[in-house]
Specification:
Layout lengths: L1 H69 L10 H11 L5 E2 L4 E2 L6 E3 L6 E3 H19 L10 E2 L6 E2 L60 E4 L9 E4 L29
Antiparallel strand pairs: 1-2, 3-4, 5-6, 7-8
């Protein structure tokens, strides 16, 4: 009888130890799950904060790039939309893609920008493209490869460049600085200096933005100019929109030398 009671107590003791062990295991698993949940929450919060900081930093860089222009237009950025799109794409991963190798253009890679469509390519890619394009032309026409200055086209817009214009060095967008250093506070591939490229069509003024991708915006300078027919008094207008009509009868002599133009003031 005593041995039976001892065996029963021993069994109960083992069952209690097993239950206690399972409880401890479940407790540890729950604690580990809780720690993981807290870590993931903190990590996601820090990533969101990082994205917000990055977005704010990007906004400051874009604002600094355009500040010289907006001071001449009283803060009006309507004419900057096209250029702004190119600048924003320069910051977005994967937005700038080399159309030759179909790979992303990274901040620390040497690039070349087409002056016709402003598309950006890797430097080695565009150099090989230019060489292959010229070889293809000469292989069809004659055997004078290397002797004649055959043109090569931009892969995107087909704007033609001379053989002598094949890029050999990496410059910033405005062409002032060779091998521009990577600066996290500047637009990628920019030197950070004032662009100063001539406006197209030429007006005698130069671009006021900091070195930037894409086309230069219309000239924001204020000039005093009269209408097409020269009858109205000169008024102050933006250089990019300096030509205007007073809508009065033109009155200029026609080619016959006897009659005058009866149309409203026109170009």
């Amino acid at each position: 009888m005593e041995s039976l009671l001892a065996a029963q107590e021993e069994g109960e003791s083992k069952a209690e130890l097993t239950s206690q062990r399972k409880f401890e295991e479940i407790k540890k698993a729950n604690q580990a799950a809780a720690r993981k949940l807290v870590e993931e929450h903190c990590s996601s919060s820090s990533e969101e904060d990082g994205e917000e900081d990055l977005e704010g930093k990007r906004g400051k860089i874009v604002a600094n790039t355009f500040v010289s222009y907006t001071t001449h237009t009283d803060g009006d950025i309507h004419e900057l939309e096209r250029t702004k799109q190119y600048v924003n794409e320069a910051f977005q991963t994967g937005a700038m893609t080399c159309l030759i190798c179909i790979a992303s253009v990274k901040r620390n890679q040497a690039v070349w920008s087409c002056s016709g469509c402003f598309c950006i390519f890797h430097m080695p890619c565009i150099q090989k493209w230019a060489k292959d394009s010229q070889f293809l032309v000469t292989s069809v026409t004659d055997d004078d490869f290397g002797k004649k200055d055959y043109p090569w086209p931009c892969p995107k817009c087909r704007f033609e460049y001379k053989r002598s214009e094949t890029p050999s060095r990496y410059y910033c967008y405005c062409g002032k600085v060779e091998d521009p250093p990577v600066d996290p506070w500047l637009v990628p591939h920019s030197c950070g200096q004032v662009c100063e490229r001539e406006f197209k069509p030429p007006c005698g003024h130069k671009c006021l933005l900091l070195c930037h991708p894409g086309p230069c915006p219309p000239c924001p300078k204020m000039v005093t100019t009269t209408c097409y027919c020269k009858k109205a008094k000169p008024i102050a207008r933006r250089c990019s929109a300096k030509q205007w009509s007073c809508q009065l009868q033109c009155g200029r002599k026609l080619l016959c030398g006897h009659h005058t133009c009866e149309n409203p003031c026109h170009a």
